[in-house]
Amino acid sequence: MKYNFDKKVDRIKNNSAKWNEMGKNFGHNDLLPMWIADMDFETAPEILEEMKNKLDQKIFGYVSRPDSYYQSAIEWSKKRYNYDIDFSSIIHSPGVIPTISIVLKNFVKDTDKIMIQTPVYPPFAGTVKNSDKILVENELVQDSDGNWKIDFEDFEAKAKDDNLNWFILCNPHNPVGRVWKREELQKMADICLKYNIRVISDEIWRDLVYKGHEFTAFASLSKEVEDITITCFSATKTFNLAGLQASFAVFPRKEELELFDAKLGALDIKRNNPFSLVAMEAAFSKGEEWLNELLEYLEGNVDFVIDYVQKNIPKVKIIKPEGTYLVWFDFSELNLSNKDISKALIEEGKVALNDGTSFGNTSSGFFRMNIACPRYMVQDAITRVEKVVKSL
Ligand SMILES: Cc1ncc(COP(=O)(O)O)c(C=O)c1O
């Protein structure tokens, strides 16, 4: 490999949320952090080089965005996903969640209901509640082999409600790791078209997809699907740049793009910062080789965890994620509350995993492990989990 993902990185000095906020979130600082979704890998050297060039300019005033900035994101989307984005429909946003928040606050009627598919990234429910809108959950279900599926009957039953006018899609899905197949997306799209439902498609994980699976952009299904969709993506998750706070939103309806732009303007958050400006473009124009190696390394981590759990902790069930670097652990065979499992993981195992119950009511028994770190950390984490499970 050209890039070294085994390299140990000291993130305490990095003032990272992942390493420095465990006391606040878990009551202890001395845990192995396998929670919040960023990676313990240095970003690609090709990105660092552009950031160093920016630093060398020694001036960090307001920046102006060159066309090449959006062009790099458009070309990446076309090349990797055959997703055509019109230059006039793409806009910067400080983050995917800020985009969703702004849309919900300004585009959605107070009486509108908004559907999400739980378990899902907690800020989805959070932004709906914070914008005083009504939340509707289409719960994902597991088949007899444990694979995560969409309950289409329930999806359509909920879609029929005249007040259900918005759906927030997570593709690839955090936390269950599904990369929704074209047919599944088309089935959701058909229902949304039939009942006049608008879609916010959060595709922030789209680059992190494992061999044998293919990401399809929701808006790329057809022109009519594109018209009902607002797409969100970024290079931040892919290249470990989340602290730079930048993302893209695609609004095919001109009046909505203009309204969104005006709302960003009112908050004075229209511009990139000098580092996100160069980092995002470098990621999309020079980061592909790094990403391909990263994916190989991450899949090695996933396979390691699955193999270890199957051989040594059979009470714990895991379905291999198709994408993301998140592994969704099912501890329900232990017949214990999440509170008790959490206490044991923290106090005995000294390992920080996300408690599944924060992703939705149905996730009792589940915990999420972030495996985007050097393999020695993953090995350490899984043996800590093993010790805890065997002691319970
Ligand atoms: C599905 C999903 N959307 C959005 C985000 C965060 O995006 P941003 O930092 O751009 O708001 C995350 C972070 O983990 C995520 O998992």
TrEMBL record:
<dbReference type="InterPro" id="IPR051798">
    <property type="entry name" value="Class-II_PLP-Dep_Aminotrans"/>
</dbReference>
<dbReference type="InterPro" id="IPR015424">
    <property type="entry name" value="PyrdxlP-dep_Trfase"/>
</dbReference>
<keyword id="KW-0456">Lyase</keyword>
<dbReference type="InterPro" id="IPR015422">
    <property type="entry name" value="PyrdxlP-dep_Trfase_small"/>
</dbReference>
<dbReference type="InterPro" id="IPR015421">
    <property type="entry name" value="PyrdxlP-dep_Trfase_major"/>
</dbReference>
<keyword id="KW-0663">Pyridoxal phosphate</keyword>
<comment type="similarity">
    <text>Belongs to the class-II pyridoxal-phosphate-dependent aminotransferase family. MalY/PatB cystathionine beta-lyase subfamily.</text>
</comment>
<dbReference type="InterPro" id="IPR004839">
    <property type="entry name" value="Aminotransferase_I/II_large"/>
</dbReference>
<dbReference type="InterPro" id="IPR027619">
    <property type="entry name" value="C-S_lyase_PatB-like"/>
</dbReference>
<protein>
    <recommendedName>
        <fullName>cysteine-S-conjugate beta-lyase</fullName>
        <ecNumber>4.4.1.13</ecNumber>
    </recommendedName>
</protein>
<dbReference type="Pfam" id="PF00155">
    <property type="entry name" value="Aminotran_1_2"/>
</dbReference>
<keyword id="KW-0032">Aminotransferase</keyword>
<dbReference type="GO" id="GO:0030170">
    <property type="term" value="F:pyridoxal phosphate binding"/>
</dbReference>
<keyword id="KW-0808">Transferase</keyword>
<dbReference type="GO" id="GO:0008483">
    <property type="term" value="F:transaminase activity"/>
</dbReference>
<dbReference type="GO" id="GO:0047804">
    <property type="term" value="F:cysteine-S-conjugate beta-lyase activity"/>
</dbReference>
<feature type="domain" description="Aminotransferase class I/classII large">
    <location>
        <begin position="37"/>
        <end position="384"/>
    </location>
</feature>
